Amino acid sequence: MSQSLHALTKREIDLGLGEKFHFFCVPGLEEAGIGRVSRLPVSLRVVLESVLRNCDGTRILPEHVEHLANWQPTGAREEEIPFTIGRIVLNCAAGIPLLGDLTAIRGAVMRQGYPAETVGPRVPVDMALDHTLTVDYHGTPDALRLNTELDLHRNEERYRFVKWAMQAYGGIRLFPPGAGILHQLNLELLAPGFLTKDGVCFPDTLVGTDSHTCMIAGLGVVGWGVGGIEAEAAMLGQPLYFLTPDVVGVHVSNALKPGVTATDLVLHVTEMLRKAKVVGKFVEFFGEGVATLSLPDRATIANMAVEYGATIGYFPVDEQTCRYLRQTGRSEERVRATEILYRAQGCFGAAKRGEVDYSQELELDLADVVPSVAGPKRPQDRIPLDKLKQRFTGLLAAPVSAGGYGKAPITSGALADAAAEPHVPRDGDVVIAAITSCTNTSNPGVMLAAGLVAKKAAALGLKTKPWVKTSLTPGSRVVSRYLEAAGLQKPLDELEFVVAGYSCATCVGASGPIDAELEQAIGKGDVVACAVLSGNRNFEARIHPAVRASFLASPPLVVAFALTGRVDVDLATEPLGIGADGRPVYLRDVWPASEEVAAAYAIAANPQFYRETYAQDIAATDPMWATIPQASGALYPWEDASTYLKEPPFLAPELSGSALKPIMHARALAIFGDSVTTDHISPIGSIKGSSPAGIYLRTLHVEPADFNNFGARRMNHEIMIRGGFGNLRLRNLMVPGKEGGITLHQPSGEELTIYDAARRYEAEGVPLIIVAGQEYGTGSARDWAAKVTRLLGVRAVVANSFERIHRSNLVGMGVLPCQLDGVNAGDLELSGAESFDIVGLDEPVLPKQRLTLRVHRTDGTVTDVPLILRLDTPAEIDYVRSGGIMPYILSDLITKARAAA
Predict the structure, then answer these.
(1) Residue 323, number of CB atoms within 10 A of its CB
(2) Domain 85-243+616-640 carries which CATH code?
């Protein structure tokens, strides 16, 4: 049957490239009477093409094609899609550990007598070392050089491993530190419009190890973020399995008002879609208003699909896509060929109302968008700019239980004190102002607007407040090219927004130190210090340990808040500062007109900037990168004494058994409320000397100055496991009124760190669970949030709901995600003294099987609570039956190697 499907749909196509190509025609399915493909959302048509093209009658069956071709907008979601992607992109944060896991699998395969090449990429892979730099130096002309040198010094051992991997595994293209952020490289360079293999052309599809990989959907590419755990499987040629999704259509109308930025738009969309509960769904934008959005504006919206919870926020390929491909230096022939292919596949252009069937339709009127920020703790908590002062002062006074800070309101006397010398920090002070992150640094419109604000402010004599740490970390070197060409980098420099690196810095928590005396004063005074950043994440304790409130804002607003030095200001009526002539300067005085931004954009939209920037192999020509030594050979020479690199443990026999066994007499390692993020779970930020990880490093004779951070030590599981659930703002309800990675051991009632408690339970042979509320695992695609959960001995996580990527990562590590069915975690009134059984895990297990959580209370009563086992597909059941994806992949590779021998 698969051969007949191919015969029905395989056709020749002339792309104008001088070569003969074939393609598998998705509209041909409808012509053959298989589904109403023309009514499918465009994003599903792209997925359908992959399923059709890869239908081999073994892994991918004709039934998979037929089911997706007959997708029903509101049908039951019980069928899985085997999605074979065309390429993979890796950031370093998850990409380096992925290469470590791959190397562990290769070692296991070779120890059984099979060749090294049994394990290696089966699809093209691009990797950027983009999450390593920290903003230690800022505001000075040598900040970029000093930060880069420090980056290479701190991470030399990791980079040696990366260099070894480049020679050991073919098919990986590397972008070294300083080349830019993965997502911006993907937009500007890596995305080819379409892919070819063996004479067949097909739409570009991908997955990546950063949750914001979905940014590429703004370019019409179906791709999203997965954990490195899933990416390993895809890299080795395994299809990705996911349930047929709901697709939410967002009808876009009208246009943005003058002065409203793409950042304002994405904060509006994030709030709107988070309220619409699009978690785990596809979102597709359609309607006439889509054409008014530039490609960078679309990419800004697509980037934050993770923040509104969707798998993807998709914009179909259209004229704007082709215009951007030309502006970023792609050849005219390639752009024309892209348009020809997408038109032939019925995938060109956003749908008009009524042309496509969606599971749900929402309205996005661009004229409703107003200048905004979001915060102080979540990206979906949008605040209109003119309401920020009122909102912040209200949060200061609100109790902690209501999301506030429980502080007295700011008085007029305190405002007067804020202007005193020396400055005494107070609630609302901005101590970090960062133009950072792929969300906005990929968008010339907002970057140029920031430069124009800086130019006008500097001309009027305004200066950044001295207590504000400023930084500019563009997503690619092209940003510097066009800012300099437009004459805007110099005024940014004058306001101390000097380029500190081409990396994902402040947004990922690598903001670096603030002034030590300032930090001490903040702590001593219990000050609610603030950060304003043009990023996508502002979760608690993420940006800096001394920062308790973080606000997402457009790059030009980041400049404005650096000038005010505080967030409790009404920028419509209060001045940014006093100009050189002694007169107050207001935001309206420095905000650029639309015509000014357009004139600067005309300079920036120069394809030559992109061609020249990407003309050379940066890894081959970077003299600093060349100084890193390189090992050779098929296997990495692991060093027992290394405190950075250890062979991953996830293939050990004790971690490879089936998770599908009843859990009896378990204890809760922790009980959480709603919105526990991967920032709370995963080891992140600096390593404190008093923490379990710091104590461990001291036993290895590592000095505190050389502790580095958890991001740099992700390939040492001994350090990472000691940092799990260690966030300073983590609230374990078992220890009410306290914050941090602590819990109560039961039945002793002794207060211990979560790590120490887990180790004691392990010695006692007690299985562990975690209980949580809504949106468990919100945040980045951090594999280590799942890995530390597994290594701490947690068998299952019981929660009201899970974020998509973290649920998948838990499955990939053999941890059971169990969703409460019709019961809220808070209503169970758990103290942590209970013991727990999870009943119903006896084989055979089916997707979304019903289970029971049996709660044994200290008074002798027993409560049965219904659960749904969130193993959503047969493939996920196979993974946990093997103990996780890594043992599953190893078994599969050895089986194939034996068959080929």
Answers:
(1) 14
(2) 3.30.499.10
Question: Does the pLDDT of residue 178 top 50, yes or no?
Answer: yes
Alpha-carbon span 861 to 127, nearest angstrom: 54
Residue 441's contacts (CB-CB under 8 Å, 6 or more residues apart) are 181, 184, 435, 447, 473, 474, 475, 476, 479, 534, 555
Contact between residue 282 and residue 312 where contact means Cβ atoms under 8 Å apart = yes
- Apex CA 640: angle with CA 637 and CA 643, to 5°? 105
Handedness of CA 771, 772, 778, 780 (dihedral sign): negative
Output the six-digit token pair for 722.
């000691």
Across 447-565, where does the E strand assignment appear?
A: 469-472, 529-533, 547-552
User: Predicted confidence band at 2 (pLDDT cuts at 50, 70, 90)?
Assistant: low
Cite the beta strand spans of 840-887 per DSSP E. 850-856, 862-869
The Cα–Cα gap between 124 and 206 comes to: 10
Contact present, 187 and 442 (Cβ < 8 Å): yes
Residue 633 backbone class (left: φ over 0; alpha: ψ -120 to 50; beta: rest): left
Asked if residue 816 lies in contact with residue 797, where contact means CB atoms within 8 angstroms, the answer is yes
Question: What is the rounded average pLDDT of the residues 415-433?
Answer: 79
Kindly report, residue by residue over 650-673, the tens digit of the pLDDT.
Answer: 999 989 889 999 999 999 999 999
For residue 409, what pLDDT band results from cuts at 50, 70 and 90? low
Q: Is 735 exposed, middle or buried (0-12, 13-18, 19+ CB in 10 A)?
A: middle
SS3 state at 196? strand
Produce one character per residue of 328-352: b if its CB has 16 or more CB atoms within 10 Å, e if not.
bbbeeebbebbbbbbebbbbbbbbe
Beta bridge partners of 751: 744
Q: Rg of the chain's alpha carbons, rounded to an integer?
A: 27
Residue type, 84: T
Average pLDDT over residues 561-574: 97
Report the length, in residues, of the chain.
Answer: 901
C-beta of residue 262 within 8 angstroms of C-beta of residue 601 = no
Highest average pLDDT, of 396-400, 408-412, 635-639, 732-736, comes from 732-736
Report domain extents, the chain.
2-83, 85-243+616-640, 372-604, 659-678+768-881, 683-723
Checking if the pLDDT of 544 tops 50, the result is yes
What CATH code is assigned to 659-678+768-881? 3.20.19.10
For residue 877 the two structure tokens come to 């059941």
Place of tokens 């120490």: 756
Identify any residues that bridge with 802 across adjacent strands, giving them in sequence order.
776
Q: Do 85-243+616-640 and 372-604 share a fold? A: yes
pLDDT at 679: 85
Residue 72 CB coordination number (10 Å): 11
The residue whose two tokens read 């130190």 is 513
d(CA 207, CA 228): 10
Return the closest-CA partner of residue 252 out of 218, 217, 299, 285.
285
Q: Read off the pLDDT of residues 515-542 as tens digits, 9 standing for 90 and up.
A: 999 999 999 999 999 999 999 988 887 8
- Only one residue has tokens 């065309």, namely 86
> Any idea which fold 372-604 has?
Aconitase; domain 3 (3.30.499)
Say which amino acid occupies 584.
P
Helix (H), strand (E), coil (C) string for 305-352: HHHHCCCEEECCECHHHHHHHHHCCCCHHHHHHHHHHHHHCCCECCCC
Quote the pLDDT of residue 780. 67
Query: Do 451 and 488 form a contact (C-beta atoms < 8 A)?
Result: yes
Q: Which helix (H) or strand (E) holds 13?
A: strand 10-13
User: What's 829's DSSP letter?
Assistant: -
**Residue located via tokens 């502002």:** 538
Residue 868's CB is within 10 A of a number of other CB atoms, namely 17
Tokens of 635: 């296997």
Alpha-carbon distance 816 to 719, whole Å? 24
| Residue 844 clears pLDDT 50, i.e. is over it | yes
For 225-268, the pLDDT digits (tens) are 988 878 988 998 889 988 899 999 999 999 999 999 999 999 99
